[in-house]
Amino acid sequence: MLADSGYQGLTKLHAMAKTPIKKRKNKPLTKTDKENNRQLAKDRILNENVIGVLKRFKIISDRYRNRRKRFALRFNLISGIYNWELAA
Questions:
Q1: Which residues of the chain have pLDDT under 70?
Q2: 46, 49, 71: which is closest to 60 by C-alpha?
Q3: Reduced to 3 states, what is the DSSP secondary structure of residue 35?
Q4: Cβ pair 4, 43 in contact under 8 A
């Protein structure tokens, strides 16, 4: 599980969770810590871009006010549109 720095406590709940390392007040990050943070950001960027596209369609950014049965169908349709745009 890859998460951003807002989920620092996640590593206590899930052993496989990876979050970036924060710098402390008098302890700057080492080069390896910076490289690890950059690699984590590179791995997460694809997922973040897809979430951003779904938010543009307003299906996950606003409250869904239609029938709950249709949510999965609409979500899959929007995902299909996104995948079709990737292929083109």
A1: none
A2: 71
A3: helix
A4: no
How far is it, in rounded angstroms, from Cα 37 to Cα 30? Answer: 11
SS3 state at 3? coil
Provide the 10 A C-beta neighbour count for residue 54.
16
Q: How far is CA 2 from CA 27, 36, 50, 76, in A?
A: 24, 12, 15, 23
Q: What is the pLDDT of residue 38?
A: 94
CA separation for the pair 25, 18 (Å, rounded)? 22
Pair of tokens at residue 1: 């599980």
C-alpha triplet 43, 48, 53: angle, nearest 5°:
140
User: How far are the Cα atoms of 1, 5, 19, 24, 32 from residue 29, in angstroms, in the given order?
Assistant: 22, 14, 14, 8, 8
Distance of alpha carbon 20 from alpha carbon 34, whole angstroms: 9
